[in-house]
Q: What sequence folds into this?
């Protein structure tokens, strides 16, 4: 089984700007960015008990993707407000391959490249096919109870994942939802002690 950094077939970078919602125009658009890497699944079509290779890969790929997503926003890493992550496995893969990419180590890489982050990184995973969409959930990086930042970003890559591939996605924002007004903790009220409030 390969131990080196995987051969990445493609990297996609996405930028979404919302200039209006409903009947209202925004004086400052809300922005979301994501970066996604497509690479070979070393365990496609076979059961592997030890998935630690994917843990290691996710640290390296996660650093690269987080840096690309932040760069797409054109802001300093510390100005990132929300984050989220996602993974898709092709049909010869397993959901656990997605979990191995996202859960043990990816959060460290993301936090190191967004100026910290106390809250858990929201995540989504699925088995899919080329062009399948994944809604990557988003939440405030320092306080999970900030309702204005509950959101998602839809990501799809036209030719991925192939049956023996994985897609790893990192998403970040410079703001919450446009025109958020459903109450809850405001970002100005964050204490940043426990990742919740």
A:
């Amino acid at each position: 089984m390969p131990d080196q950094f995987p051969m990445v077939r493609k990297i996609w970078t996405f930028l979404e700007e919302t200039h209006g919602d409903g009947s209202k125009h925004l004086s400052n658009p809300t922005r979301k960015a994501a970066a996604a890497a497509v690479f070979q699944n070393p365990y496609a079509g076979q059961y592997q008990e030890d998935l630690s290779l994917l843990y290691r890969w996710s640290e390296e790929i996660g650093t690269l993707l987080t840096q690309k997503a932040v760069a797409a926003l054109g802001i300093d890493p510390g100005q990132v407000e929300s984050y989220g992550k996602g993974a898709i496995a092709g049909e010869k893969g397993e959901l656990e391959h997605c979990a191995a990419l996202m859960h043990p180590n990816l959060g460290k890489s993301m936090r190191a490249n967004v100026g910290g982050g106390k809250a858990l990184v929201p995540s989504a995973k699925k088995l899919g096919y080329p062009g399948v969409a994944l809604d990557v959930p988003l939440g405030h990086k320092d306080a999970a109870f900030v309702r204005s930042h509950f959101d998602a970003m839809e990501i799809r890559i036209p030719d991925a994942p192939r049956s023996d591939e994985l897609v790893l996605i990192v998403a970040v924002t410079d703001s919450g939802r446009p025109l958020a007004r459903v109450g809850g903790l405001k970002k100005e009220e964050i204490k940043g002690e426990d990742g919740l409030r």
In short: The chain is about 20% helix and 35% strand.
